[in-house]
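#dry-run=false #mode=assembly
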Amino acid sequence: MLGDLIGHLEKEEHRILRDTVARFAKDKIAPIAAKIDEEDWLPEEIFKEMGQLGFTGIMIPEEYGGFGIDPLSAVIVLEEIAKQSASVALSLMVTSVLFGHNVAYWGQNEELKKKYLPRIASGEIIGAYALTEPDAGSDSVSIKTRAERKGDYFIVNGQKMFITNAPVADVFYVFVYTDPSKKKEGMSVLLIDRDMEGVTIAKKLEKMGMRGSPTGLIFFEDVKVPVSNIIGTEGMGYPQMLKSLEIERMVISAISTGVSLAALDWMVRYANERKQFGKPIGQFEMIMKKIADAGAQLDAVRTYLYTYAATYDEERDNRFESASVKFLASETAVKITLDAIQVLGGYGYTKEYPVERYMRDAKLLDIGSGTSEIMRFVAAKSLLKAGKII
Ligand SMILES: Cc1cc2nc3c(=O)[nH]c(=O)nc-3n(C[C@H](O)[C@H](O)[C@H](O)COP(=O)(O)OP(=O)(O)OC[C@H]3O[C@@H](n4cnc5c(N)ncnc54)[C@H](O)[C@@H]3O)c2cc1C
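#status=ok
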């Protein structure tokens, strides 16, 4: 049956986790998912509730109050939340994995880690990850945000664009150049608090999907950041970017599979119930093809994602796996959600059913955290570099 193949990858604790998240998402998120989308509203208290259950601590070590570093648990949590609301899952992924995990993994200043991580893990505060700039998207090494050292401080100037959680975040994981003359080797990461003087959250962007997960533009103007707020050491920004994107692309794929599962569920239920020409539309071959394709593609990509997450080894070069699972999962989500609208016909096009929301949410997944074009570029480059396959 669909989904059975990944069963052997999950331990008892994963099954318990899945049940707990699924119950929470059905009780607390499903009833407000349409409102979150319609009003573009992030229910901040949901983070505190998820914090009490440990979900905001995914990929954060237990010593800092987190759930522990287990990519498979992160995949399960994000997939189950995304089945009900992809936008809540996206904001959760950013605060816990992109902010929390990276601070825990790369941070060398214990005081800094103790200051932020337990509060991120409990959902008390929200984190954001700020790499993209107005003129630096796919070409992320061309960022211009500059941090100039002045005694015990860095003076930061620049802008960040499309930053998930920016309108509500308390703290930002910011990629800057501390020494632009060194190119990639001059890139660093600083933690910048929202309430530091010179930080302005310029605006919340109006989006077609992922509404509820707020996206914003940030300005830094002569922001005085203590040197102790550096993550890792000066010049370590580029390796942090590569490794953090590797993990991001794995876990964001779980949001894609969650949305795809929700869309396929609607396709199957509707095709069994809706009758035209005297029989359920699920008996028409062209509808059956959509359902068969969706099931096969989803099972294949979920098996890939779960195998990758269960065997993830941070020491390995995972660029091929992260890039390929990301474009496969996100493009599958776009296709399945579009097909779900088609199966539901005119009803699928209305807001009476959630499938049109799934499609609008899914479209972000093949753009954010690296577009499908860039994912194919990374995957192909990795194979070409290997030089041979057999
Ligand atoms: C809702 C949302 C949330 C986001 N959240 C965050 C966040 O939290 N933090 C963050 O740092 N960023 C975030 N982003 C930014 C996101 O990662 C970028 O939008 C993405 O990497 C693409 O960059 P771009 O939009 O500047 O597009 P561009 O890089 O300008 O690309 C435009 C088009 O050109 C194509 N293209 C570019 N270069 C090549 C190439 N070499 N070969 C072939 N095609 C190419 C792209 O694939 C794309 O189709 C978010 C974006 C959105 C929309």
